[in-house]
């Protein structure tokens, strides 16, 4: 799953016998290196990510991996580094009137955790797709229906949530997939520092990030040839 067309286009190009899956979200069924997969372009934002998770689960997804770009939050992370989410919060959730902490959706857990085995596979695959390149780390991903470009807000995300990256879909996928009981993982390539300092040529950077997404998808399905469960959603 990816939010923007540019983030999933190269993976779609590699699908054999691609077929659209009817539903509210752009979902394609096809074969990637001999493995049946579903590929979704969710659209931007938490509602779209939730709809996509439900659509993919309904279509039979055994697991979901979300890939795409995000803003860096943790100190020391640079443009081009990759963050694999090991904890997810919705930074724009405010249930303080009910006694809940900032970032917790009322009635939901304070955070969501991904599937450990799948996340480990994504981490290993992320390190293989760009050997000797940028850093690949695990960390908290903060999501909200806001595009963050304020250094003060970045510092708040870092101090309040110990966030490594900020984007607009991951934690909503985490919430939906947890309810749907579908294992999930999220990999984000950092396109900017979320404070106005972005890749100097964003279209060129997005093209490079899309190529890394493509390599990541191929690395993930390669491991399924020896697995008894040959289903995966990249």
Describe the structure.
It is a single chain. The protein has a domain at 65-226: Rossmann fold. Helix content is 34%, strand content 26%. It is globular. It is built from six helices and eight strands, in the order αβββαββαβαβαβα. Strands 4-7-6-5-8 form a five-stranded mixed β-barrel, surrounded by five helices. The protein has a three-stranded antiparallel sheet with strand order 1-2-3. It has helices at residues 5-14, 46-58, 116-129, 151-161, 170-180, 202-222, and strands spanning 16-21, 26-32, 35-41, 64-72, 82-90, 136-143, 163-167, 184-192. The protein has 234 residues and is of the alpha/beta class. α1 (5-14) crosses α6 (202-222) and α2 (46-58) packs parallel to α5 (170-180). Mean pLDDT is 90; it is low at 230-234.
Arrangement of strands in the largest sheet? 4-7-6-5-8
What's the CATH H-level homologous superfamily of one domain?
Nucleoside phosphorylase domain
Please write the CATH class name of one domain. Answer: Alpha Beta
Continuous helix count: 6
Class from helix and strand fractions: alpha/beta
For the secondary structure, the number of strands is 8
EC number: 3.2.2.9
GO cellular component, one term: cytosol
Protein name: adenosylhomocysteine nucleosidase
GO molecular function: adenosylhomocysteine nucleosidase activity; methylthioadenosine nucleosidase activity
